Amino acid sequence: MLEIDHRKTDRTRPRMRDRGIYLLPNLFTTGALFAGFYAIVQAMNEQFEYAAVAILIAMVLDGLDGRVARMTHTQSAFGAEYDSLSDMVSFGVAPALVIYEFALQGMGKLGWIAAFVYCAGAALRLARFNTQLDTVTDKRFFQGLPSPAAAALIAGFVWVMVEYDVAGGDVRWLAAAIALFGGLTMVSNFRFYSGKEINLRKSVPFFVILLIVLAFILVSTSPPEVLFGVFALYGLSGYADALWRLSHRKKTG
Predict the structure, then answer these.
(1) Which of 3, 93, 109, 178 has minimal CB crowding within 10 Å?
(2) How confident is the model over 154-210, as pLDDT tens digits?
(3) Residue 231 belongs to what H/E stretch?
(4) SS3 assignment, position 61
(5) What is the pTM of this model?
């Protein structure tokens, strides 16, 4: 998911079922929440590789809960609220604390301010997403960088630095720039591709399956670098889209 709507779309279901708490999708949400909490604990213990991987696992689980809810027709208002709270921990608080513990705490006020800007950006991003849920007309794009992608950018950066034995203090300014970039981009108005029009139930050409297999092979060869590169490019894609649309308007204007 990058933030999936759990709200009820079928008002004809029995009232007792509507009032219930569905177990299956909320298990995935609980797993994502646990992964975010685990990342915080590991960052406090200076196990930054485990913390980064936990955030990435939270992103995967967060992407599954909404899809499972829709496929099993178990969307609920409770699930939507629980998912938002879980996202705030896993993709707001956890990445901010991980990047702070890894590289920013030696910067004094500037360090915790950069971490707070990221955390506040995630909170504002989630609040805006929830309030604009029923007014979005183009489902193909998110407004602002999705919080799971911003968290994966932070986690990928930390994981790459640990992989190459780079001390956090040596890249503190780069870490602060990435934290600020993630936080500010989340509350921007730039468009980011959502992938929501992809229908997993439809048949696809053979080459699509081949590309998926190649993608798994590429990730398995060097997970930290590939994942960080993918989410860095995704984070920049909104700016590239804005520049392309601006230049296109100037040509046609």
Answers:
(1) 109
(2) 999 999 999 999 999 999 999 999 999 999 999 999 999 887 766 666 666 777 778
(3) helix 223-252
(4) helix
(5) 0.85
The secondary structure of residue 142, as a DSSP letter, is: E
Structure tokens at 71: 């496929």
Segments of 59-173 assigned E as strands: 141-143
- Say which DSSP state 106 is in: G
58 with 35: CB under 8 angstroms? yes
Return the H-helix or E-strand segment holding 117: helix 109-131
Tell me, what amino acid is at 220?
S
Looking at residue 22, the DSSP 8-state letter turns out to be: -
**Of 8, 7, 151, which is closest to residue 87 (Cα–Cα)?**
151
- Distance (Å) of CA 172 to CA 28, 125, 193: 34, 25, 30
Q: In the structure encoding, which two tokens stand for residue 238, read together? A: 């909104």
Q: Which residue has the tokens 């705030």?
A: 88
**3-state DSSP call for residue 73?**
coil
Question: Residue-wise over 125-136: b if at least 16 C-beta within 10 A, else e?
Answer: bbeebbeeeeee
107 backbone dihedrals φ, ψ, rounded to 5°: -95, 0
Is-contact 125 207, C-beta < 8 A? no
What is the per-residue pLDDT across 33-91, written as a single tens digit (0 to 9) for each? 999 999 999 999 999 999 999 999 999 999 888 788 878 888 888 888 999 999 999 99
